[in-house]
Design a protein that fits this description.
about 200 residues, single chain, 7-stranded mixed beta sheet, Rossmann fold, about 25% strand
């Protein structure tokens, strides 16, 4: 199932929307027990830079077989051996990974649809206790760049409402990631409860 407004623009334009070093620094990869899962890897904008920064296994999912084939060629040419690309519809099929098996899940620009809880439920299932979701999305307080309509872009309040009852919590880690994105980290192990405000 492809989500609404999920089509990607041309690759060079898309990749220029992110400050990749800033976002990777914000992730603080050394603080996680791995492996890492990326849901919706697209053009591999973050998959390859992250794989180069860690020796741990990276599982990168995408629904589009063309994206997966291109990604597999690229990592082979680059000699990167710690990434496994998986073509799968995670909304309809889940990830197929074991419960409590991963340390970090990346959700980048994919939760702008009403059934986001399906993905968040799967994330909660596969995360180890104290594992982390790192979520980024286009901001809704600015009109640029082109992307999902402002009213469907999730913000902090939408995300926190979406995780109620999923054994995920917010512990105060959210940030504007200039120029166009914002990010929030959620941790498995405590219901959102009093953290929601």
């Amino acid at each position: 199932m492809k989500v609404n407004d999920s089509g990607l623009p041309e690759e060079s334009y898309w990749n220029n929307l992110f400050n990749i070093p800033l976002i990777i620094e914000w992730l603080n990869l050394k603080s996680f027990s791995c492996p890492i899962v990326e849901m919706g890897c697209g053009y591999r904008t973050f998959t390859l830079p992250i794989a180069r920064k860690t020796k741990d296994e990276v599982y990168a999912f995408d629904i589009n077989p063309v994206m997966i084939e291109a990604a597999q060629r690229l990592v082979q040419e680059a000699g990167i051996r710690n990434v496994q690309f998986i073509q799968r519809d995670i909304v309809d099929e889940g990830t197929g990974l074991e419960s409590n098996s991963v340390g970090l899940v990346l959700l980048f620009n994919i939760l702008h649809f009403t059934n986001r809880r399906i993905i968040l439920n799967e994330v909660s299932r596969i995360l180890k206790p104290s594992g982390t979701i790192a979520f980024i999305h286009l901001r809704k307080d600015i009109t640029k760049p082109l992307g999902p309509a402002l009213h469907v872009r999730p913000d902090k309040q939408i995300i926190l409402k979406s995780i109620i009852g999923l054994n995920l919590s917010f512990k105060g880690t959210n940030k504007i990631l200039e120029p166009y994105h914002w990010g929030i980290k959620l941790t498995k192990g405590t219901s959102v409860g009093s953290h929601f405000s």
